[in-house]
Amino acid sequence: MKLFSPDSKFMRAMSTLGDLMLLNFVFLLCCLPVVTIGAAVTALDTVAFRIARGTEGRILALFFRSFRQSFRRATALWLLLLLAGVVAVLDLRIFTALGGWLRLLRVPFILLLLMTFFTAGFAFPLLSQFENGVTGTLKNALFLSLGYLPRTLVITVLNVFPFALLLVDPYLFLYAGFLWVFLYFAAASVLIARLLEKVFAPYREPEKEEKT
């Protein structure tokens, strides 16, 4: 039957689904030490861009090669963004507990938290696709996130949705546990790669496009 032919749309879709499930599971395993989250996200994005372009190849080999190669920069990037996020959240809690006009002091930290989310949404995809230092990646991520704000908002929603759901409705989060473990993060990364492909295209070198 054509439906089960290796070249049929159904079988290609099933193959892609299997790749996403495997990729998602491996990604979560690599996030467990916490300090490795940056490298794991960068590796996930590396594979996601390949899947988005239909040139994924051996996804596990590509994932772990990117994980090793980007580890130092991705870890530094992750720790800086984590520090900014923690500072913003802690100060928000402090000033929210205060009364009167002092609550207005929350505003800069709300902006800091938003900028952290926006920057993170671009930083790791940038690191996965371009050779650049941590400072340059952060700067480019911030400028691009503000320059493409509608896409940035979609990317931010995709990135924070599971964690927001955990805070709002822990029962529903646990009920959807299979989704988080076996599909969501890989699928969201591919969607983000599709959103960013046109954004990154003008900055790609022709030979880079051939290699990735």
Protein topology:
Blueprint: H1 9-31, H2 37-52, H3 59-97, H4 106-129, H5 134-147, H6 149-168, H7 170-175, H8 177-200, H9 206-211
Helix pairs in contact: 1-2, 1-8, 2-3, 2-4, 2-8, 3-4, 4-5, 4-6, 6-8
How would you describe the overall organization of this protein?
With 212 residues, the chain is mainly α. It has one domain (2-211). 81% of the residues lie in helices and 0% in strands. It has helices spanning 9-31, 37-52, 59-97, 106-129, 134-147, 149-168, 170-175, 177-200, 206-211. Helix 1 (9-31) crosses helix 8 (177-200) and helix 4 (106-129) packs across helix 5 (134-147). The radius of gyration is 19 Å and the shape is globular. It starts with 8 loop residues before the first helix and ends with a helix. Mean pLDDT is 89; it is low at 207-212.
Instruction: List SSEs in N-to-C order.
Output: HHHHHHHHH
Q: How many strands appear in the DSSP assignment? A: 0
| Count of individual helical segments | 9
The separation of the N and C termini measures 35 Å
Radius of gyration: 19 Å
* Helix/strand/pairing category: mainly alpha
Q: Compute the average pLDDT.
A: 89
For the record, the count of structural domains works out to 1
What is the approximate shape? globular
What percent of residues adopt helix (DSSP H or I)? over 70%
The stretches of 5 or more residues where confidence is low (pLDDT under 50) are 207-212
Quote the beta fraction.
under 5%
Largest sheet: none
